[in-house]
């Protein structure tokens, strides 16, 4: 038996773990629980553009994993409990009803008839909240509910000063659906491009993008398409681009960046050498390295991006695939970064601020913590000893 064939059973088992989410995907409760207002920390309105079909077999999912050839639009209202801890997504187990005093709870869904209705609603919210929008593009093996709750957690924990917009492509939400998901994300390129253009036509001043895992492939393809049309920065409105755990072949990413060109706004890649989900993806792809666990940060930085190596920081689960959102200190770092509009952000990291964050990382991990930031200009290493 070859070494590769010995590895296959292990990877088959890992595949059962490697998705970004669990097996049930109900968003809405069967019944609505009433809790005192004092038990709720906040309510967030999450605007949604999706290439999923509306769920008919189980309406509680709202949108399922089947593909639609057109984009649908909605808004989901989500409450966050006072007991929420930074980096966590407190959820009910299985298909049980959520208790708003203990768990994230979707309280209402508003459907928009067409793009015009959605643009009017999201535009009004953007104008009210500070002229900024945060677009989140989820990853592999995510149900509609997973994307909604993850963006709620990011917006809440980072205290983002703008309108959260989820772009939800038609993931099958199955651990065995990797190829289906890759095709679904590819099929959604035009829809994401159109959504970004729609947002740019509002009074928004900055459109920030956070993409995770396979969602980074979709995001890079949409940005590449914008570049081909000569509008790669959305008329100057594109803000931060943050690619977390990118599930993209390194060579493909380089070609995408060559077409896109060196960014003029902060463009960051968050990677981790201990990302087990991406090691599986690399195996499926013929042992080709993925950007999210690539060991040569300087090579990537040559394309004008900032590379943040999180290998020696603690993840929230055994896969180490979502550190950017589930490590409390890293979430705070992300929040401090996002609260400064991209147009005012420096290309150079603030050493004092990063050292303070490094001390926090040391306390959070309880041992030596190290973040290595590689920019087109320099390499900055933050290492602290915890107790």
Structural commentary:
Helix 4 packs parallel to helix 6, helix 6 (214-228) packs parallel to helix 7 (250-260) and helix 11 (328-338) runs antiparallel to helix 12. Strand 4, helix 3 (144-158) and strand 5 (163-168) form a beta-alpha-beta unit. The radius of gyration is 20 Å and the shape is globular. The chain is α/β, with parallel strands linked by helices and 387 residues long. The chain has an eleven-stranded mixed β-sheet with strand order 3-2-1-5-4-6-7-8-9-10-11, with helices on both faces. Helices cover 35% and strands 24% of the residues. The chain is built from twelve helices and eleven strands. The longest helix is centred in the N-terminal third of the chain and has 15 residues, at 115-129. It has one domain (3-384): Rossmann fold.
Sequence-ordered SSE layout with sheet pairings:
Elements: H1 3-15, E1 40-54, E2 63-81, E3 105-112, H2 115-129, E4 132-137, H3 144-158, E5 163-168, H4 178-187, H5 189-200, E6 206-212, H6 214-228, E7 238-244, H7 250-260, E8 267-271, H8 276-284, H9 297-301, E9 306-312, H10 323-326, H11 328-338, H12 351-365, E10 369-374, E11 379-384
Parallel strand pairs: 1-5, 4-5, 4-6, 6-7, 7-8, 8-9
Antiparallel strand pairs: 1-2, 2-3, 9-10, 10-11
Helix pairs in contact: 4-6, 5-6, 6-7, 11-12
What share of the residues does DSSP label as strand, in percent? Answer: 15-25%
Q: First CA to last CA: what distance?
A: 46 Å
Quaternary organisation? single chain
Number of domains: 1
**Strand order in the largest sheet:** 3-2-1-5-4-6-7-8-9-10-11
String of helices and strands = HEEEHEHEHHEHEHEHHEHHHEE
> Can you tell me the CATH class?
Alpha Beta
Poorly predicted regions are 1-19, 353-368
Structural class: alpha/beta
Please count the beta strands (DSSP E, at least 2 residues each).
Answer: 11
Q: What form results from the Cα inertia axes?
A: globular
Q: Give a quick account of the main beta sheet: strands, pairing sense, barrel closure.
A: 11 strands, mixed
